Amino acid sequence: MLWTLLLLPLLLLVVSGTQTTQPCFPGCQCEVETFGLFDSFSLTRVDCSGLGPHIVPVPIPLDTAHLDLSSNRLERVNESVLAGPGYTTLAGLDLSRNLLTSISPTAFSRLRYLESLDLSHNGLAALPAESFTSSPLSDVNLSHNRLQEVSVSAFTTHSQARALHVDLSHNLIHRLVPQPAGAGLPAPAIQSLNLAWNRLRAVPDLRDLPLRYLSLDGNPLATVGRGAFKGLAGLTHLSLASLQGVPQLAPHGFSELPGLQVLDLSGNPKLKWAGTEVFSGLGSLQELDLSGTGLVPLPEVLLHHLPALQSVSVGQGTRCRRLVREGAYPRQPGSSPRVALHCGDTQESVARGPDIL
Which residues, if any, are the signal sequence (predicted)? Predict the structure, then answer.
């Protein structure tokens, strides 16, 4: 009897940690995840997708971490729609696949813990300034909308220390407005920016952004000339695949990218050889994708301009790896290993490091 009395509080603690005490709104589904000792901490994912516009505003449990309002034919989202108990602690919000054509500048002002926001597959034509200043966002998906002109300063968030990923692909963007000079505002902490399949005819001015990843795939870029990537010395991955039209790569066009490690130029059949000076300044480049371009065969003299290059994809299904030949052993004073490109079908194993012979 004594042992029963001693164990009763412990049993109650275990049971209370696994129970869901708050019901879900009719039509929605609530999935509770428990954490900690004896499941003492819980977070709820609420799925209210595909129910119709009458669903908002919808009451949600106090411990809701993620709310899915996608595919509800919503036409407007303002501050009152995203207010009430449970909203102030939201970390993820999905508003994709609705009928949104605009958003209120204060729509997300009460979501002080929001990290992930999905507004893709809507009809947004404009993005209000300071739309996200109240939230510590790390991921914003605005792909598949009708945006034409976007200001970089619109992505200034509450927490500038958090790296931000922004997806603006598949819009109608013809201009990206740079941060106003002398405005005194901190530069948005955008480290990953996807601008693929828009209407950009020139590389946008992205200087002072802490970018590490940039995709401009599918844009009608006319040329990539000197100064195109000014102020992006920290960029490590650049994709210019499947550009529309006849892209021209000018000599020293990538010279402002000393830290670039991956460059993708694939899917540009009209891209022709313009001399090794095109790749001048890419001292850190390790991977180069030229598959589906006119840059075949690749002259090995390129290795002198790209000292860190490890692999190159060329033609249709051909991959070249850096091959280092040590020569005679022991090495003669003043001698250096001979470097060449060894090419083969992509079905060959390319997982190995550089060959040393």
Answer: 1-17
What's the CA gap between 299 and 233, in Å, rounded? Answer: 27
- Provide the strand spans (E) within the chain: 29-35, 41-47, 64-68, 92-94, 116-118, 139-141, 149-151, 164-167, 175-177, 190-194, 213-215, 223-224, 237-239, 248-249, 262-264, 287-291, 311-315, 318-325, 338-345, 355-356
Calpha distance 93→66 (Å, rounded): 6
Q: Report yes or no: 146 and 125 within 8 Å, Cβ to Cβ.
A: yes
Element (H, E) at 5: helix 2-18
The length of the chain in residues reads 357
Bridge partners (DSSP) listed for residue 169: none
DSSP 40-83: -EEEEEEE-TTS-GGG-S----TTEEEEE--SS------TTTT-
Residue 128 has pLDDT above 80, yes or no: yes
How far CA 249 is from CA of 174, 255, 268, 292, in Å, comes to: 20, 12, 12, 16
Evaluate whether 48 touches 55 at the Cβ level (below 8 Å).
Answer: yes
Segment 293-313, tens digit of pLDDT: 877 656 667 777 888 999 999
Q: Give, in degrees to the nearest 5, the angle at Cα 168 between 162 and 171.
A: 165
pTM of the predicted protein model:
0.85
Any idea which fold 24-176+186-199 has?
3.80.10
Residue 219 · residue 194 · CB < 8 Å: no
Cβ neighbours of 106 (radius 10 Å): 16
For 245: left if phi > 0, alpha if psi spans -120 to 50, otherwise beta; the answer is left
pLDDT digits (tens, 9 = 90+) for 341-354: 777 776 554 444 44
Residue type, 181: A
